[in-house]
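>> received
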Amino acid sequence: MKKIIYGFSIFAFSLLMLIEPVIAASLQFDRNFIYALLITLVPGVELRGSIPLVLLAYKQGLWSVVVITLLNIIITPLVFIFWYLFLKIAEHVSFLKRFTNFYLKNLQKRSQKTIDKFGFLGLLIFVAIPLPGTGAYSGALIAEIFGMNKMKAFISITIGIIIASLIVTLAILGIIPLKII
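>> returned
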């Protein structure tokens, strides 16, 4: 476990060093972009909510999509690391315990068939679907629920995040037709 945490820490630090110039440039813009980054951190919303916000409402460039995507990728190892801490806290707070149990049962029910049939590819597909509740947080929790290898799960989730980001961006730009029933 220590090796995994160490590996994720090295990866996250390296990723931050690579995107630091982009983040620094983004911070020179208005604070709306910071709000969008905070929305990216909200479970269930993540990049599916923040990409339309930065492109449509805040009129930011495509660089903002890259930053949001990278931030969403960084969430995954943090969920792996802090999940057990959250469960320990939730055990002592009845509302959190009920909510966590409900959420995990629902998540397992929604993902069971896909994961059983396709394994890590199923995890990638689940995360890549650009719907609320199918992002990095859910993907990491699914990997925990099904006892998947964390490094392979991280790779699957990362690819799924990139695909979801592309789908949402292309839909917002009108390149992919967005059909709302």
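>> The chain has a mean pLDDT of 84.
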